[in-house]
Amino acid sequence: MPVGQIVVQRFRVVSANSLDDVLTAIDAAIGHPNLPQMHRDIATANTYAEMEAVIQKLVGPTGLMEFMRLDMGSYLAKGRPGDTPRSIRMLVGNPLIMRRMAEHVPDTASYAPVTILIDERADGVHLSYDRMASFLASYENAAASQVAVDLDRKVEAMLTAAAG
Tens place of pLDDT for every residue, the chain, 164 residues? Predict the structure, then answer.
């Protein structure tokens, strides 16, 4: 079986704000849907327009929503003495954006929703994001790439604003 290589670009911004302040800013920018209810509502939608209406009600001002939040720091802290820096991994996205990319490049569904890592380090709180456009570059599909570039801009603007 052939194996391909993907070069990934990582966007990172460092904040002097606390991790809690950064999370508060991100929380204000994204929707926080009841995912089981969202899935039920999408399952009962008969048309794309109905599905779109369900999703549009659930996204935040950025057009994005939270799918999952993982406290990676809780794993890092076990067995370590003293204070352990916190680390939060968030899965964020919009099913409509993913669909627009996956219509052209089906593999997109393995990269979306996107991961954002927010973690405390000695020099501040790091907000990191692997650019979707870099994941899709090797597929050489202009339509999917343009959607990915737009998504990257949304996520990076949100992280930059949250960093203060």
Answer: 788 888 999 999 999 999 999 999 999 999 999 999 999 999 999 999 999 999 999 999 999 999 999 999 888 877 777 778 899 999 999 999 999 999 999 999 999 999 999 999 999 999 999 999 999 999 999 999 999 999 999 999 999 999 99
The pair phi, psi for residue 112, each rounded to 5°, is: -120, 140
CA angle 73, 75, 76 (to 5 degrees): 60
115: containing domain: 10-163
User: Within a domain: residue 2?
Assistant: no
Task: Give CA–CA dist 46/48, Å, rounded.
Answer: 7
**Structural domain total, the chain:** 1
- Report the CATH number that the domain containing residue 113 is assigned in CATH: 3.30.310.70
pTM beyond 0.85: the answer is: yes
CA–CA separation, 155 and 161 (whole Å): 10
Residue 5 placed within a domain:
no
Return the amino acid letter for 143.
Answer: A
| 45 inside domain | yes
Q: Do the domain assignments include residue 157?
A: yes
Token pair of 46, please? 């008969």
Q: Which two tokens stand for residue 61?
A: 């001002």
Q: Amino acid identity of 117?
A: L
